[in-house]
Amino acid sequence: MTEVDKNKQATYHLWIFSISKFISTFGNSIYSFGISLYILELTGSAFGFAINLICSVLPRILFAPVSGYLADRYSKKFIILSSQSLAALVVGGLLVYNIFFSVNIVAIYMTTFLLSISTMFTGITFTSSVSSLIDENRIQKAMAINQASVSSSAIAGPILGGLMYGFDSLNVFLLTQMVSYAVAALLESTMKFQLYSTIADQNPIREKFIKSISSGYGYIKSQDILWTILRMALLINLFSVSMVVGMPYITVKELGIDSFHFGVIEGFFAGGMLGSSLYFSIRKELTNPLIVVKRGIILIAFLLAASTLPVLLTFSYNINVFYYITLAFLYGVTLTCINTPIGVMFQKGIKEEFKGRVFGLLETISQAMSPLGMIIFGLSFDWIGIGWSMIPSAFFLVAITTIMLRPSIIRGADPTVNQP
């Protein structure tokens, strides 16, 4: 294949990758919205949401390294198509069950658990494949457009889901998601996952699972920037969970913001991510990504502390809504400004044969801290209050970032990672 043909194929990959991501995430957003309301209707308890969340997070903690191992050792295309097909079958199974027996809460939890496994396999394998699908000069564009697709579906999914829930049954939600997975799999089957592969031997000697994961961890430790970011992710995800838990707690419980306006606030968060993703898709690649990441995390800390202001002072209802809309939008923008440069660094700096295991270990570490953080901050909000929980978290984020991304670390970044 000539370079011109490869470039055309890479362009095709760029758009098919984004379209399939939007379709599958859109279907999942509609399902998540509908199933959340259905759980509330079925159980009448917030505890049902917590169990469903555990069923979603737990598989990612347990099986992400397995997904990374398989992505590095077997056909990425086969894994992606298999996991997408499994997701369609799982949702189809719940649909058939609901038609004949009427769905119960246990069936929903099982479906959530299995869907979490299948979507996690698809996500990690796709992430480890980006540099094989797209030419190096357009990796930032690919990462940004992918994020824009996810953000768009996060905005549109709940809106359509809300309209559908008022007029349609659960079967329509399930059918929509099943079709979205099937269409995404059909589109992905046309992609060539070895277009820009740098691995000479496509059938390497396969190590045992434990040895392979150990070698992946050893590779991370041997790369100073990767090792630094891995340790940062462990700590930052712990403290940043305070925003995930704190935002709905402050807005809904403390300030009494109604569900419609809270939905608008969440929509502006996704809108911030969408806008900044589109910006990264057209701008030149960053020449100093770690500096942008450092500033972004410090800004996140500032937004975290600022989110407590309406609790400590007294504002009108409309000002509170506008204030949190602004914070949510800025939070979405800043997260994209952190995630996109790191994603590009990883795609260019990690050896292809290790990418699956590296992304799998990162997924496990980031997800593992989320339940712990939710427990810690859920209790601290009740025991010591919002201000004493979130403001110290902001200081910890600044301290961690300042120490771990000090100038000597940024200057010592691998040139192949840090340069366009």
UniProtKB/TrEMBL annotation:
Q: Which GO terms describe its cellular component?
A: plasma membrane
Q: Return one GO MF term.
A: transmembrane transporter activity
Please state where this protein is localized: Cell membrane
Where do transmembrane segments lie in this chain?
12-40, 46-66, 78-100, 106-130, 142-164, 170-187, 229-250, 262-280, 292-315, 321-346, 358-377, 383-405
Question: Main localisation, per the record?
Answer: membrane
User: InterPro entries this protein is in?
Assistant: MFS (IPR011701), MFS_trans_sf (IPR036259), Tet-R_TetA/multi-R_MdtG-like (IPR001958)
**Keyword set, alphabetical order:** Cell membrane, Membrane, Transmembrane, Transmembrane helix, Transport
Write down a Pfam family by its short name.
MFS_1
* Superkingdom assignment: Bacteria
Task: State the annotated membrane topology for this chain.
Answer: Multi-pass membrane protein
Q: Which PANTHER family does the annotation name?
A: MACROLIDE-EFFLUX PROTEIN, PERMEASE, MAJOR FACILITATOR SUPERFAMILY-RELATED
UniProt-recorded name of the protein: Permease
Q: Which organism is it from?
A: Rossellomorea aquimaris
